[in-house]
Amino acid sequence: MDLAALIHEENPTVQVVFVTAHRDYAIQAFELETTDYLLKPVLKERLNKTINRIHERLEEEHLSESMDHSTLPSLEIRCFKQLSLSFNGEPVLWKSAKIKELFAFFLMHLDTPIHRDLLIDKLWENHDYKKAKIHLHTCISYIRKMLESFHPNHTLSFAGQHYTLHLEQAWCDAVVFEHMPTVVSSKNIDTIERNILLYNGEYLEEEGYEWARVKANELSGKFISTLYSLADYYEQEHLDTKYITVLQKILQFNPYSESAVVRLMKVYIRLGMRADALHLYESFKQSLCEDLGIFPEKETSQIYTLLKQGDL
Questions:
Q1: Does residue 101 share a domain with residue 42?
Q2: Which domain holds residue 13?
Q3: What's the rounded Cα separation, in Å, for the pair 152 and 160?
Q4: 33: which residues sit within 8 A by CB, 6+ positions away?
């Protein structure tokens, strides 16, 4: 473990694979971002999957190195947890909170016409219509100038009482995440593993925009369902370390998911991590009782009882 950490400090691109009879260090190994963790005796089929994973990562690195970085979008937009913009690596400062909110609203409806009155109703509710209209035009003017300074093809057009935001060259974490495949396979597993990391909090969570709640719920649902799909894939491919990690991630965002608890307990038991399984159940039961006033399902409790008695 220490050697793997030192190797990655020296050169993060080096791929490390553990081949060992020790099950207990699988989680720590994955936290070090090692390529794989093989348990002895190693089956040929399982070894081939590791080799294929190494080749795929090498191809990704080669592709990344060969890319012309001058063609990459210079405007980067992040929407998970909070809204932030950066241009050529420098953060973009907002002149006012209302300008930021208006841009966020346009971004949520990217390339979709939005009626002027809808903008006023959502962002200037309970304001005098004429004054709200003036505020809207002032914010629109600022956003247009800001976008034009980034790229000439970034536009905020107006036609038939509707505004439309168009971004010619920009990268947005929410857009990438939204277009991520939902069915996990060996062909897209690397893409999904990479894009799932973009979700580090709810959509515009810290901004407090009520109008963004529906979108936030949609993306949150996709995040959880994708994690379950990853769990199914890892279980099927016998990738125990990744299977454990994704189940733990599900519980991090949804601590009351009993199905994730049951699956995690079972894999802990299978790997001989009995103490971890017992602790997981006890913590889960305590959270359910204290927070929701309910108890775990009968199946979950039976697993715990059998484990406690030494029958599992």
A1: no
A2: 1-67
A3: 23
A4: 8
Buried b (16+ CB within 10 A) or exposed e, 195-205: bbebbeebbbb
For residue 166, the SS3 value is: strand
Look at residue 73 in the predicted model and tell me its pLDDT. Answer: 62
Distance separating alpha carbons of residues 61 and 77, to the nearest angstrom: 24
164, part of any domain:
yes
Q: In this predicted model, what pLDDT tens digit does every residue of 68-96 receive, in sequence order?
A: 444 556 899 999 999 999 999 899 999 99
Q: Which helix (H) or strand (E) holds 232?
A: helix 213-236
Element (H, E) at 279: helix 274-287
How would you label 258-275 residue by residue, b for 16+ Cβ within 10 Å and e otherwise?
eebbbbbbebbbebebee
Specify whether 97 is located in the same domain as 131.
yes
The DSSP call for residue 114 is: E
Q: Within 10 A of 245 (CB to CB), how many other CB atoms are there? A: 18
Closest CA to 30 of 191, 272, 234: 234
The tally of domains found in the chain comes to: 2
